[in-house]
Amino acid sequence: MPHADTSARPPLSPTHNRVRSESTIAEVLPSNTFQDALSTMVSSPLPYLEKHAQGNEKGDLKGHDIGSGEDQDDQNKGAVSATWDKIMLYYDLAYHRLKQHWIIFTVFLLTSIVCCSIAIGWAFRLRTFNIADPDSIHNSTVQLSANLVDVDPSGQEIVLDWVINYECEAIGCPDVNIYFDSNTLRSDSSSSQTQSNIKPDPIFTINGGNVLAMRNNTDRRASSLTFRTDVAVSNANTHRTLQSYPYDKYDTQLVFFAERAATNESVSIAIVRTTGIAVGFNVQLQNTTDITDNFGTVIKNIEVTRGPVVRLYAIFIVLVIWLVTLTFMATCVLNVFFGKGISSGVLVLPMGTLFAFTQLRGTLPGAPEGFGAVIDFVGLLPCLAILTFCSIFMTAIFLLRDPEHDIPRWRWKKPGEGRRRNTFSA
């Protein structure tokens, strides 16, 4: 059959995507390049094939699914490999950029760490003692300001300093007695006073004449309007003793009132200001009671807990102790039982860590002396026992072999690979 003159055919544009048949390709391409073009088409994705290609009746092209099981696995592996390659490319680019500007990166990193550490520490700082009623400053005659001095969880008491502001002009500045519930105050053990539930003796007496003389600067020989109380706290209601450190919890109730010394007539009293911080403790008002009586008695429920920083630090120390212990335990198992060679400098570290743990436990603020807290039973004591056995095994292994080199069995690829076998002939 005569072939058409190909020289008269206009040249194809580079963007020409029309699909030609094999006979057309044979006409266009020279005879020596036809096989190469056909091989290229077979090996490359064909644009005219659909995902599910159907064969003819004679079965010239059998229908198959390009996304079959094996092809799908290959595609998934290829996608994972491509994603990993892309991640590594980004990592290499980032590493190269950071290496070029390592001074700026180091300064930025250190600054960020310092700022974040300060911000976290400031957010977890202890709060100021607060049980005041600021709104009572305008309608109370005896105004108390409390300053928290100390919290003693062992003795179960808190120390408070009180400052009195006597606004007595409206009532003529009579002498006034201030009363506290004596059973909630720690008294001298040598006192012969019998405890009872009767009305307590006054804890402080305000002399109205001396107050006026002090304000008018006519006589300043009078004592200052301050006193100190040791208030008892208890864990009877919270059921969290010192053994629960750092989650021990205590509470107490302050009950106080004021009366005229001459007539026992009630005088309004309130806590208008509170200050002070007991290191390691949060002392806050638990709730405000609505219970009132006919004598202007003020009731304050106080709650004492460990500060958030103390709790966070105690938990962090326990986690560190466990992580170090488990690391040494894994090293002991690999070296002693599996024969993995490890440097001798690492093998003797558990012995020194035994003493470091006890010193680390001593840094816990406010922890009970010696052992006995819950964190000792779940943290320090089991870790010390584990480290003791690790130290024994990792030291005794020097008597049997050189622990710095792998034993032959560690390099076996199969079970019993290097074991000598005896062959018996029949």
Q: What pattern of helices and strands is seen along the backbone?
A: HHEEHHEEEEHEEEEEEHHHH
**Percent of residues in helical segments?**
25-40%
The stretches of 5 or more residues where confidence is low (pLDDT under 50) are 1-8, 10-34, 44-67, 422-426
Structural class: alpha+beta
Oligomer: single chain
> Got a strand count?
12
Radius of gyration of CA atoms, rounded to a whole number: 43 Å
Give the overall shape, derived from the CA principal axes.
elongated
Between the first and last Cα atoms, what is the distance in angstroms? 81 Å
**Helical region count?**
9
Mean pLDDT: 80
Largest sheet: 6 strands, antiparallel
Strand content: 15-25%
Describe what is shown at a glance.
With 426 residues, the chain is an alpha+beta fold. It has 9 helices and 12 strands. It has helices spanning 22-28, 34-43, 69-100, 102-123, 208-215, 308-337, 344-347, 349-361, 374-396; strands at 52-53, 64-65, 142-152, 157-166, 176-180, 204-206, 226-232, 249-260, 266-267, 269-275, 281-288, 298-306.
Describe this structure in words.
- This protein has 426 residues and is an alpha+beta fold.
- The chain is 35% helix and 18% strand.
- The chain is built from 9 helices and 12 strands.
- Strands 5, 6, 8, 9, 11 and 12 form a 6-stranded antiparallel sheet that branches. A 4-stranded mixed sheet has the order 7-4-3-10, with no helix packed on it.
- Strand 8 (249-260) and strand 9 (266-267) form a beta hairpin.
- Helix 8 (349-361) packs antiparallel against helix 9 (374-396).
- The radius of gyration is 43 Å and the shape is elongated.
- The two termini are 81 Å apart.
- The model is unreliable at 1-8, 10-34, 44-67 and 422-426 (pLDDT under 50).
